[in-house]
Specification:
Blueprint lengths: L1 H6 L11 H15 L12 H37 L11 E4 L3 H8 L4 E4 L2 H9 L5 E3 L2 H14 L28 H12 L2 H11 L7
Parallel strand pairs: 1-2, 1-3
Length: about 210
């Protein structure tokens, strides 16, 4: 649109006239942005050429970003679809929290493991393509995905639903506590309420809520 406005009054140019001139400007913009460069349409005024100069630089940048993003998404999709069981991780070196149950499980299964002092450190290595997978409890990964993606979208990652070992959380109380049944009923009612779903969404994000 800007190129057509600049060039449309130049009678010897390629973009003069009404709708036809705008169509030529649109064609030129697409050809230039994709770096095809047929050369059949060219600006003749100085402002038009100056605009084209910056558009060429922007086109190279936009195409590079699109290509990198598409490649990254396809690679992530291939990894996701190729992993359906914990033993499929033998294709990669896996990161795990040092001294955690996840590290112990990986060692027991004979999988190549790199220990890290924190999950954030492990995930940073994964975002730099130095690591392909991080093994940890699902809730921790969901929480980190939500918090890290909020600060930097490039740190987003997929959390695969592969259960290796199920962990239960209990609330201890003294033996024969009269209120134990009331506590159990209250907990069951709470985890079936909308408030529980809202809390999960707040802390873990809307993707992959825990049951």
């Amino acid at each position: 649109m800007i190129l057509w406005i600049i060039e449309r009054h130049h009678g010897h140019g390629h973009f003069h006239g009404g709708l036809r001139g705008f169509g030529s400007a649109l064609w030129f913009s697409a050809v230039t942005m994709t770096t095809v460069g047929y050369g059949d349409k060219t600006p003749v005024t100085f402002p038009g050429r100056l605009l084209t100069f910056f558009w060429m630089l922007s086109g190279v940048l936009l195409v590079s970003i699109f290509t990198a993003t598409a490649t990254s998404r396809m690679a992530a999709a291939r990894i996701s679809t190729s992993i359906s069981h914990i033993h499929d991780l033998n294709k990669f070196v896996c990161g795990a929290l040092k001294g955690s149950e996840s590290e112990q499980i990986l060692h027991e299964l004979g999988l190549r493991t790199l220990p890290f002092e924190s999950l954030e450190e492990a995930l940073a290595q994964m975002s730099n393509d130095r690591l392909k997978a991080v093994v940890a409890d699902k809730n921790s990964l969901l929480y980190l995905r939500k918090t890290l993606a909020a600060t930097d979208p490039s740190l987003d990652f997929d959390v695969l639903d592969i259960a290796v070992r199920q962990t239960f959380i209990a609330i201890p109380h003294r033996e024969n506590l009269p209120e134990s049944q009331q506590i159990n009923h209250a907990l069951v009612a709470f985890i079936n309420s909308n408030e529980w779903v809202m809390l999960q969404n707040e802390w873990l994000g809307s993707r992959g809520l825990i049951p």
